[in-house]
């Protein structure tokens, strides 16, 4: 009878020691969680789109015709002109513009908060050319 009791006690100790996870199992689970977390981070990260300025101007010209709204561009972004206040609708960074050429062939220097491009309904824009800091010319 004593031998049977010792076997039961030994069995109890053996099952008590086998209750946890091994180090390899824990490492595999942590690896799977980190890979899936990294994948979800990349999937749900919003991509930044660098749309050329000339395409943005054309888009807002068409939008102005359809909506009847007036828009203007400055270095902070693109705004919709309102009666009492203006609303930022696109915070696209438009820095790097040095000069603009108006419709009267006047060369105007662009400062930090200068409205350098006004778009009115019926495809009317206030400038015809943009000159960037590196000398690149964008003809509208």
TrEMBL record:
The chain crosses the membrane at residues 21-44. SUPFAM superfamilies: Pili subunits (SSF54523). The keyword Zinc-finger does not apply. Keywords: Membrane, Transmembrane, Transmembrane helix. The keyword GTP-binding does not apply. Pfam families: N_methyl (PF07963). It comes from the Bacteria. This is Type II secretion system protein.
């Amino acid at each position: 009878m004593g031998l049977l009791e010792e076997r039961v006690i030994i069995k109890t100790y053996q099952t008590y020691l086998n209750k946890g996870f091994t180090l390899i199992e824990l490492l595999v689970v942590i690896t799977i969680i980190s890979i899936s977390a990294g994948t979800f981070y990349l999937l749900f990260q919003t991509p930044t789109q660098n749309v050329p300025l000339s395409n943005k101007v054309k888009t807002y010209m068409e939008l102005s015709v359809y909506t009847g709204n007036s828009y203007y561009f400055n270095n902070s972004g693109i705004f919709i002109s309102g009666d009492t206040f203006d609303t930022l609708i696109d915070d696209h960074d438009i820095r790097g513009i040095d000069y603009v050429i108006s419709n009267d062939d006047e060369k105007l220097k662009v400062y930090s908060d200068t409205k350098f491009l006004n778009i009115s309904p019926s495809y009317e824009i206030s400038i015809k050319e943009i000159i960037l800091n590196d000398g690149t010319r964008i003809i509208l």
